[in-house]
Amino acid sequence: MSLWTRVANVFRADTVNQQLDEEFESHIAEAIASGRDPLEARRAFGSVLRQREESREATVMGWLEGLRADAVFGWRQLLRNRVTFAAAVFSLALAMGSCVSAFRLIDALLWRPLPVSHPERLYALSRYGLGWDGKMAHFDGWAYPSFARMRDAVRNDAELIAVSPSSRSDLTFGSDEEMEKAYLQYVSGTMFNAFGLQPTLGRLLTPQDDRTPGKSPYAVLSYDFWTRRFHRDPQVVGKTFRLGDKIYEVVGVGPKSFTGTEPGTMTDVFLPVMMHGAVTRDDSTFHRTLAIMRPGVNLEPVRAKLDAVSRGFETERAKGFKDIPKKMIQNFLDQRMEMIPASAGTSSLQESYRHALSWLGALVVLVLLIACANVANLMTALASARAREMALRVSLGAGRWRLVQMVLVESAMLAGCASVLGALFAWWSAPRIVGMINPPDRPARLALSADWRVLAFGVGLVLAVTLLFGLLPALRASAVKPVSALKGGEDPHARRRMMYGMIAAQIAFCFVIVFTAGLFVSTFQRISHLQMGFSPEGLILLETSAPQGQTQAVWDEVADALRSTPGVERVGESGWALLTENSWNNTISIDGGPPSEVLSHFLRISPGWFETVKMPLVAGRDLRPGDTFPGTAVVNEAFAKQFFKGVNPVGRTFDKMKDDGTRLKCKVVGMVANAFYRDIREGVLPVAYVPFDVTVGKDGVARRDGGTFAVRSAGGNLLLLGAELRRKATQTRAGFRVTNVQTQQELVDAQTIRERLLALLGIFFASVALLLAGIGLYGVMNYSVMQRRREIGIRVAVGARSRSIAGLVAKDMFAMVTLGVAVGSVAGIASARYLETLFYEVKAADPVFLTIPAVVILSAALLAAVPAVMRALAIEPAEILRSE
């Protein structure tokens, strides 16, 4: 009989039994027909049941049939205990869904290989060491001339690729009124070929596009952008669009699976790196560098060669540095080249959230362990009620593995049911977590596909969970001794001790979760209530460009038009808004002295900007029309403290140093209060606010091509006002384009996105952990009361008071809770050391952060203990003694 037939027969048992019985009866009929006595014939063939079982071994896959029987029996057992079954499924579904959701997020951002050939050979070049600000960090930006030298030096050992970070830029396929946003990435022409990618339509960029700066105005659209924007129109090849003052021709569409090299951002348009305006500059580190190692080449010699070439380039460039402290230059030159594995790509989102996602992974594992311990206790309680059944099975000849299999099958079914609900939770929750990562104007986009990686993780998770909560009860159930069980069972205290031990572990895990969640909530509260140094409420920001350049008079005309808009109080201009990623810094010299070793930051502003953003003037005056740079500056208090030793700086002078040794002299005319410049986590920086620096063109006219209007609203709907301001700015003067409209409050909120995410996730998982721990406590205490009903009844009969009975029921449990809290406190403080970079002005050893979780957990334990204590107090001694 074939293997497939034997497998199929497992699921048609009644038919197989009927066929075997018919065959058996046919043999008896043949014997009777041949003249044998019917009784003798039946006696000769033996028992019908025995013959059927012997024949089944040849017609049915025995082990599979046993598995099926265990599944049917286990399902009936689960349905007999619906409340316990539902609690276990809910606990596991929440924990397993959180695990799968976390895996999808972590995998998409940190682990999933890029869809390119041989991603395991892909590395990102980075320098590690002291920066110009004197802080240790990784620097992954490169100047293209340095890249070109490194590429030529290792051409035989590796393929180097330049890829800029994806930037959200304005482009138009029609008129200026049809401007749209798209994510652009400048890449080497060799990238697509080196990655082994083929076009969906047209052609991709080639090495021919890497030859001459500014001479390759071609673009490749991503498949995703082609689908969203052009609905897969095959006529898109040959279309043109304008980006800034350049016209680009679409030459092809990329492969469906490739969306760029930055997880978290899906690139819409790929442009040749030769079209970047800074491609010839040796002081603009505008791109990252990826290296594809050739087969069989060792990494270290290549790294050393790249390090030497890079160091030589920077040493040569540093010869032109004038009036920069030698120590700062040496620190810069001493940076060490590193080649970091980048099979999953490289992005700023990875760096920002790598540590946070590691904490998220640890958190869901703890929740999973709590859930497994919880279900293990429930399974142990059920197993104790089936001790006599197990003893009877052993007495009838069931082997230990057979009993283990029976209980594990039941556990696997429970885990399978939980996995279905958990999968739905993971499908719902993962995209929502991604939506919380970045601000609305730059949302994170991750490929959260449910592919074989997620499926394999889910299957492995089900197996692991089944073993975690099912193996111990299965082993204990299979180790039952028939004589002991039939006499009343083994020592109940042994089983209670095991259950109490798991409760202590649950409480310890729960404490760690609640403790770290409290730290993150406190971090978010403190960082979100910081004084900004200005008033972001009601402040609308219009990022504006004038590609051909416009005079200051024209910019002032646009500002006046904005002031005349109903609902506008004040208007000011700056080079960019506060709390963006933009920065302008350099060393300075005080009163003609040597260059400082601390960098000063600068921001170009217009007269009246301080009043618009409500940044208080502390001393001196504001900028006035006619003030120029170099010449005039207003500094903040941090600048005065750092460079003037806290003395009133009004009337003092400083020189802004340039790389070529030129000194730009400025006189301080005012001092304003401290305000955050680009990132609230780095604290207040010394900042000098200077008038707009305009460039004089060949025609002798001074023009500038960009800036940000800060508009103070008098109230009302900021979105509607922003739309009106955009129209007013573009209609006032031809050539002006508002590239982005947002509120200053959005930028402030964007500064705390990571902290908000961690706080929300911490609260959620702390709630889940408390709920699961509470369910576990209730289940164990309820089991304890049921096991000790006779003892409690006797104690009540001999005069025990209610207080004594309550203490008897809850004493051991609260001892385990106290032990769990103590262990959790130590584990929490130890784990917080690895999370310090995610905290803000929070110390894990603060007694408040240890006391609050302890009080919360003890309160939850008390709440879970109340039903069990009430049940114990309701025991009637007469009823117990009568049943005995």
Automatic annotation (TrEMBL):
TM spans (from-to): 83-106, 356-382, 403-428, 454-477, 498-521, 757-780, 813-835, 847-874
Pfam family, one: MacB_PCD
Domain (ABC3 transporter permease C-terminal): residue spans on this chain: 363-480, 763-873
Keyword Cell membrane: yes
Keyword Methyltransferase set for record: no
Any GO molecular function: transmembrane transporter activity
Protein keywords: Cell membrane, Membrane, Transmembrane, Transmembrane helix
InterPro entries per UniProt: ABC3_permease_C (IPR003838), ADOP (IPR017800), MacB_PCD (IPR025857), Macrolide_Exporter_MacB (IPR050250)
An example Gene Ontology CC term for this record: plasma membrane
Domain MacB-like periplasmic core: 86-308, 507-695
PANTHER family: ABC TRANSPORTER PERMEASE YTRF, MEMBRANE COMPONENT OF TRANSPORTER-RELATED
Protein name: Permease
Lineage: Bacteria, Pseudomonadati, Acidobacteriota, Terriglobia, Terriglobales
